[in-house]
Write a structure and sequence with these properties.
It contains ten helices and twelve strands. By secondary structure, it is an alpha/beta fold. The chain has two domains: 111 residues, no CATH class; 182 residues, Rossmann fold (3-Layer(aba) Sandwich). The strands form three sheets. The chain has a six-stranded mixed beta sheet, with helices on both faces. Helix 7 links the parallel strand 7 and strand 8. Helix 3 runs antiparallel to helix 10 and helix 4 packs antiparallel against helix 5. The longest helix is centred in the C-terminal third of the chain and has 25 residues.
Length: 326
């Protein structure tokens, strides 16, 4: 069900103007109170108050009040159903463009993840791609000192896998440039004539801090947010990871804070993965975010069920009072 909704109190409705019918409820409440007072005044004409108690036992009065209250609730619920209430439901996404941004910096040769961070990330990326719907376009971006699009969006899984297999270590970590390259890939994703562009999502895997580039990570994240592109990040590696370069040993703990800032700025998720299994779990979580979307749907039947439940309780009260009537 598509269309604009309007929030009224805690709920959303496709036809909120129909809720004006609820104004009849306070009128009915006032009428009920007036009738009770009128009936009580008439009862005072009896010379013996015991006669009133014999006709209408006191214990039946609360049943009458409950029955009326449930009847009014039923009327309110059926009016809400008439206004076509909206609810959120997760439905499979038919089309999407997913851009994988993989870190190729020298720190990815660390062996704290078996066999290396780079090899583990390559295998996990291929496993992730294999489980995406065939209609999805996949793109690949290299994250290094020369961040660039390696493979434009395509549904040719074999080609993407070949590009992944060919990935090798490079120097530098220009996160902002890599994200801008991913946004450019989404902008050039193929689409069907007459249809809106498929939604785009970026999954960025990195283990290091930004080392430069033409665009800062903050500016790139702001651009992604403006374009409505969600960026999910994976900080890959352990705190004890290290690499030996030029005879020196360097600690290469992942910069989780920098990646988290990018994810938060774009409405994405930031995940830490300290092992290959955790990396696979992170991809599984993100696959759910990619393949499903929240859609507004009419939930009139649910409100009609509420009305039926209230009416049933009101009927029980009415039947109970009728059974006790002399």
């Amino acid at each position: 069900m598509t269309g604009d909704t309007t929030q009224v109190w805690l709920w959303e409705f496709f036809n909120p103007e129909r809720l004006w019918a609820l104004l009849v409820l306070p009128v009915l409440v006032i009428a009920y109170i007036l009738l009770l007072r009128l009936k009580r005044n008439r009862g005072m004409r009896y010379t013996q108050t015991g006669i009133v108690g014999a006709v209408l036992p006191r214990q039946s009065q609360w049943r009458r009040h409950v029955s009326v209250a449930m009847a009014l609730c039923s009327l309110a619920a059926i009016t809400g159903a008439w206004a076509r209430p909206a609810g959120t439901e997760q439905v499979p996404r038919e089309r999407a463009t997913v851009v994988l941004v993989l870190d190729l910096s020298q720190s990815m040769q660390a062996t704290d993840i078996d066999p290396t961070r780079l090899d583990a990330s390559k295998q996990a990326a291929k496993d992730f791609i294999a489980q995406l719907p065939a209609s999805y376009n996949i793109a690949l971006v290299a994250l290094s000192g020369n961040s660039r699009v390696l493979a434009q969006p395509t549904n040719d899984r074999g080609m993407i896998n070949r590009y992944i297999d060919a990935l090798t270590l490079e120097d530098g970590t220009h996160i902002g440039d890599a994200l801008m390259a991913a946004l450019d890939a989404i902008a050039h994703a193929p689409g069907e004539p007459g249809e809106d562009p498929a939604p785009g999502m970026v999954i960025m895997l990195s283990d290091g801090s930004n080392t430069g580039g033409e665009v800062s990570p903050e500016q790139a994240a702001a651009n992604a947010r403006e374009q409505g592109v969600v960026v999910n990040t994976i900080a890959f590696g352990t705190l004890n990871g290290y690499v030996d370069l030029d005879g020196q040993r360097y600690n290469v703990a992942p910069d989780t804070e920098a990646l988290q800032q990018i994810a938060v700025a774009t409405g994405g998720a930031a995940v830490d993965a300290k092992s290959a299994s955790q990396l696979n779990n992170a991809y599984d979580q993100m696959r759910s975010d990619v393949t499903y979307e929240d859609v507004k749907k009419e939930v009139t039947a649910r409100w009609a069920l509420y009305a039926l439940a209230f009416a049933f309780v009101a009927s029980l009260g009415a039947v109970s009072m009728a059974a006790r009537w002399p």
